[in-house]
Design a protein that fits this description.
By secondary structure, the chain is an alpha/beta fold. The protein has two domains: 131 residues, 3-Layer(aba) Sandwich (D-Maltodextrin-Binding Protein, domain 2); 132 residues, D-Maltodextrin-Binding Protein, domain 2, CATH 3.40.190.10. 41% of the residues lie in helices and 21% in strands. Strands 1, 2, 3, 4, 6, 7, 8, 9 and 12 form a nine-stranded mixed sheet that branches. A three-stranded mixed sheet has the order 5-10-11. Helix 7 links the parallel strand 6 and strand 7.
Length: 304
């Protein structure tokens, strides 16, 4: 004879099933809420945008990205506010000491190579190249006031300089590479912005304006800005990927991602992607991918 169902037992089973479903949905929700906080260099930002967009497909990972500058990214990594700091320069000893004092052990991974480009408007028809000494005249404090001061035969138009802001690794690298060897500071009358697009738009209409940013921003602006070839003593060299790769272009520099210690879980998977399949996106963004040997070395460090 069939037993009548026990209402209490049935209700208990239903409650258990509901609790299991809630727990299971909570696991799914937790997986969906994995967040990677990545910020810093505006130069590295286009790479971060490309990589995060591809890596995130089919994964429960959300990225919080910004391009507030290398200095900002390094500072926030040291303060425990970022999972990854993007940097267009190497961390300084003092910054590393600050990190370690805060219990953060910074680890650098090179992910690409860039060249800082010196740009002028298509409207300019006289600057065909600049030597390192002329760059010092243009960008150095107390140096050239007009383009005629930079080179005989150029017009007596005022030099107008546009630079990344104080948080910028591009600004720091340019100053350390070009100006500091001559004992110069960056000129104080320069227009500054952390927004590369704003710098480009301010240069665009004026033939006497000049600025700098990472090569990855050049494809967005090459229809109205020119990259000025740089002469380090062996003749003018344009910032082509080939010239950056063989070292002929004098303003080449590595790009880094910094983490707190050896990365794990989703951050480790993301870096493995950036150093693996993500290298195919590097050239499309405008930078030089790592060589196979360098890529394998970085992956070996990542995998411990």
């Amino acid at each position: 004879m069939a037993r009548e169902s026990d209402p209490v037992r049935t209700w208990t089973i239903l409650n258990a099933l509901v609790l299991l479903l809630v727990a299971f949905s909570g696991c799914i929700q937790a997986e969906e809420e994995v967040i990677i906080r990545q910020g810093g260099s505006s130069t590295v930002l286009p790479l971060a945008e490309a990589w995060s967009g591809s890596f995130g497909v089919g994964r429960h990972v959300h990225f919080e990205l910004d391009g507030a500058g290398s200095n900002s990214g390094i500072h926030r990594l040291c303060a425990g506010q970022l999972d990854i700091a993007d940097a267009s320069r190497a961390m300084r000893p003092g910054e590393e000491a600050t990190c370690r004092a805060n219990g953060v052990a910074p680890v650098a991974f090179q992910v690409a190579t860039d060249g800082i480009v010196v740009v002028m408007s298509h409207e300019n028809d006289y600057v065909d190249a600049l030597s390192l000494e002329e760059l010092q005249e243009v960008f150095g404090e107390g140096q050239a006031e007009t383009w005629a001061d930079v080179r005989d035969g150029w017009p007596d138009d005022p030099v107008r300089v546009h630079l990344p802001g104080l948080q910028s690794g591009t600004r720091d690298f340019f100053m350390e590479t070009v100006l500091e060897p001559a004992g110069l500071e960056l000129r104080g009358d320069a227009f500054t912005s952390q927004d590369d697009d704003l710098i480009a738009q301010f240069i665009r209409p004026f033939p006497n304006s000049v600025g700098i940013f990472g090569r990855g921003f050049l494809p967005r602006t090459e229809h109205f800005l020119d990259a000025v070839p740089i002469d380090a003593g062996d003749g003018p060299v344009a910032p082509s990927l080939e010239a950056i790769e063989d070292g002929a272009y004098p303003l080449s520099r590595p790009l880094y991602l910094y983490t707190d210690g050896a990365p794990t879980d989703a951050v480790a998977d993301y870096l493995a992607y950036a150093l693996g399949p993500g290298q195919e996106q590097v050239e499309a963004v405008g930078y030089l991918p790592l060589s196979q040997e360098a890529r394998q070395a970085e992956l070996a460090r990542l995998q411990g």
